[in-house]
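Incident log, support desk, overnight shift.

02:14 A customer reports that sequence design results differ from what the structure should imply. Their input is reproduced verbatim below. On-call engineer (initials T.W.) acknowledged and began investigating.
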């Protein structure tokens, strides 16, 4: 999910972590790319909120940070963050001031202190912009005000394999596209993040495959209405399939233009039709 002002924090991958973990069929071995430039150590008092129970901090060379409740988790997330950044950089470069993020890997109670209890389950990740509310509640320190946090579920750490990298890649797409500032449909933001993640990392066994033909036309039911809110792994797969099918017709540069236009409040289907006619004249575009 896109990063939020603290008054309206929304989940990362909206499906519960349990669904992701149970459907995780493929595990990959991650190489330690972009290893931290110094070992993890204990954070000084007040540097990290007790509410998050994250007492170990790793600082990366590019200004990103990983803060963990369990010291061993920092290496998992430092490697995953570096891998996600390296995968995205060629197609979606980081732009200040949101190029340096902080990944928080707290206890489950620490995550709940940020996102609250949710009837649909605790999300795999929640991305937010630290503001006065989190500082006032003692969840964040004053030094963190204005910084982007990605707060991850400890169940994702335990799952291991490819999941931490995929979760962070998805969240970084939202951060790098400034999704919180966009007025477009939620399914477009999520479908774009799913599609770009698969573009740079390949298909995921943790996301269900949609049926044949999904997203191949601009007519219902293949094309979602703009008020649709994806809430399951299957929903995310459908949203991603629509975006990937559009990329097959107008290319990824065209999709980026479509994403920006819908983010400005234009209707997703109308913009897609207009761009397809403008870019291809009815012919399939090259990516």
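02:41 Re-run completed on a clean worker. Output:
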């Amino acid at each position: 999910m896109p990063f939020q002002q603290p008054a309206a924090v929304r989940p990362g991958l909206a499906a519960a972590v349990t669904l992701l973990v149970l459907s995780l069929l493929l595990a990959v071995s991650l190489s330690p790319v972009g290893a931290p430039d110094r070992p993890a150590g204990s954070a000084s008092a007040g540097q990290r909120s007790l509410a998050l129970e994250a007492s170990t901090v790793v600082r990366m060379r590019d200004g990103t940070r990983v803060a963990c409740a369990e010291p061993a988790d920092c290496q998992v997330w430092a490697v995953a963050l570096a891998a996600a950044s390296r995968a995205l950089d060629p197609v979606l470069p980081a732009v200040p001031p949101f190029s340096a993020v902080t990944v928080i890997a707290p206890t489950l109670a620490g995550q709940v202190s940020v996102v609250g209890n949710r009837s649909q389950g605790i999300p795999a990740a929640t991305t937010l912009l630290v503001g006065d509310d989190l500082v006032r509640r003692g969840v964040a320190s004053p030094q963190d005000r204005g910084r982007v946090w990605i707060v991850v579920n400890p169940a994702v750490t335990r799952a291991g394999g490819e999941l931490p990298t995929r979760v962070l890649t998805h969240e970084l797409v939202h951060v790098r596209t400034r999704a919180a500032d966009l007025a477009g449909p939620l399914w477009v933001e999520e479908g774009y993040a799913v599609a770009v993640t698969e573009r740079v990392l390949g298909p995921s066994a943790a996301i269900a495959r949609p049926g044949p033909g999904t997203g191949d036309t601009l007519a219902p039911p293949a094309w979602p209405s703009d008020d649709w809110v994806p809430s399951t792994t299957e929903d995310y797969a459908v949203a991603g399939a629509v975006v990937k099918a559009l990329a097959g017709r107008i290319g990824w540069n065209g999709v980026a233009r479509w994403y920006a236009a819908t983010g400005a409040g234009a209707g997703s289907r109308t913009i897609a039709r207009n761009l397809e006619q403008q870019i291809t004249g009815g012919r399939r575009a090259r990516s």
